[in-house]
Specification:
single chain; about 120 residues; four-stranded antiparallel beta sheet; about 0% helix
């Protein structure tokens, strides 16, 4: 299995900043893309941002210009710098990693999720 451990959530005032981190661990795997999703109460989980090994990024329209995703390929770690936070950014943020893992002699795709970290934006 590929396990993801998230950190960095918390309570912040509107206009403030937070930085989320997520590290992937396991054996015999190769990550192709890592990203962040979020789920607010009563809403479906939605994409926030994703980054590929090659550095290509994709952001949700709602966070464009405020959030930045980055990664350290050698450490299989992804970060989400969140600036100018708004109350509507309040949600549980989930890390996701996709790639391939070696099972015996065969590479198979994997899609792993972290347990989530709460981000609350409130005065």
């Amino acid at each position: 299995q590929v396990q993801l451990v998230e950190s960095g959530g918390g309570l912040v005032q509107p206009g403030g900043s937070l930085r989320l981190s997520c590290a992937a661990s396991g054996s015999l795997f190769s990550v192709e893309a890592m990203g962040w999703y979020r789920q607010a109460p009563g809403k479906e989980r939605e994409l926030v941002a994703v980054i590929t090994t090659g550095g290509s990024t994709n952001y949700a329209d709602s966070i464009q210009g405020r959030f930045t995703i980055s990664r350290e390929n050698g450490k299989n770690t992804v970060y989400l710098q969140m600036n100018s936070l708004k109350s509507e950014d309040t949600a549980v943020y989930y890390c996701n990693a996709r790639g391939k893992r070696l099972y015996g002699v065969q590479w198979r795709p994997f899609d792993s999720w972290g347990q989530g970290t709460q981000v609350t934006v409130s005065s």
